[in-house]
Write a structure and sequence with these properties.
alpha/beta, about 525 residues, about 30% helix, single chain, seven-stranded mixed sheet
Length: about 525
Amino acid sequence: MLDQNMKTQLKAYLDNLKSDVHLVLSLDDSDTAQKLHGLANDIASLNDKVKVIEDNAASARKPIMQVVNPEKQTALGFAGLPMGHEFTSLVLALLHSGGHPMKLEQDVINQIAGLDQEMNFEVFISLSCQNCPDVVQALNMMAAINPKIKTTMIDGAAFQDEVAERNIMAVPSVYLNGEVFTQGRISLAEILKKVDSGAAKKQAAALNQKEPYEVLVVGGGPAGASAAIYAARKGIRTGVVAERFGGQVMDTMAIENFISVKETQGPKLAMALEEHVKQYNVDIMSEQKAANVIRAEKTEDDYIHVELDSGATLKSRSVILSTGARWREMNVPGEQEYRNKGVAYCPHCDGPLFKGKKVAVIGGGNSGIEAAIDLAGIVEHVTVLEFADTLRADKVLVDKANSLKNITIIKQAQTTEVIGDGTRVTALNYTDRATGDAKQLELSGIFVQIGLVPNSEFLKDSGVALSARGEIEVSAKGETSVAGIFAAGDVTTVPYKQIIIAMGEGSKASLGAFDHLIRTPAPQAKTQEVA
């Protein structure tokens, strides 16, 4: 099952096992079961601490492999074949079940160990989903720590009847004790907030006790990471507060225009960004969303205040806003009703769930045409709907799309409504802008790829000037209209939303913030002058 190169790499990882690990197989007569059996035996052949046990009565769901620590009685399940993006999840499950230390703070480990309820998590994934492994790995760590927590990764392609029965139209979809828990990406911290009611209050209280920063970066994408590194290298107190590290890069599959790196994937780049930031003395506060920014002249202590959704408030002499952007929605009837029930925004994640079905892609830019090409290899047919009379995508992409027999491109098409049967999408209504005729497409999925919306709503009362599109207006130095507040990346008016541009803008804003700091008295100094 594994080639020699993979075996060599995996053997090196398994040398870190400190305790026995059992691979408990429950199999049927499917081809997937045979491959899973081969995978388990390949793994066991690499280390004496790994043992394969076949027990077809161990699980009603087949085929499945459970990674078990026989001493602690922890169990991490993989239903289907954990390859593709999920192979890393399997490797980590082996290591963590075998006693290899996790990259978690001790207080988080203690919090998980202290959870006293029985929890059975089921995570429906697709092997091409780059968001799914984060969720699987977070839940697997919980299960490896606390034997009262069980988790199972379920490959939707291998269990299509179960996917249909539960009406799963988007991944990752997480169930807890048989009930829907969440859909989409969710971090370990967010999971703990949902299952441990006191966690959020404790975290907010801890944040409120933080000393003021000299530079506080709001946002953890490429711009935020760059800003934090440049600030920390100046030797000043630097903090980063973000909903998730990596930002929208985490939702990007292929990156082929990052200079000096021929090709990479978004999650891989996001991980590298975080690791780079962690090499410096930067206080990273993840899973926190900014709710408001109060400029220094409106506060009693002359610091800029950043209020968070959690109720906490952080203080800083300067702030760099790098909150990025998110996918633009169609804003038509039925879109919200059928979100994750046929309306999707990530073709790489959710495309496999529409295998053999008809889908539409909304948008004829690079993202839309790339999505259509990607989906064409999975679905029966793709219809691209573009509002304008010309496509905005690069010619090479358009030529590729036109060469595929199962892609149809319709221009001057205005989407007007998403139609469904109450549980899932069945059709899409649009208007032919050339003739005014109303038309309908029968389909099962709609992938929306129509650009970005800046994440700037929390600034409406801050005094920070925004453009008509909601982007933060910045100077050549990254300055906003408010002294001490800078901005960088996709949330700003800087044109061309690209990773490499965001990084450059982040470093520039950080240098601008440092220049502001050395020319502006600290709040304590100003207080002494007044006295």
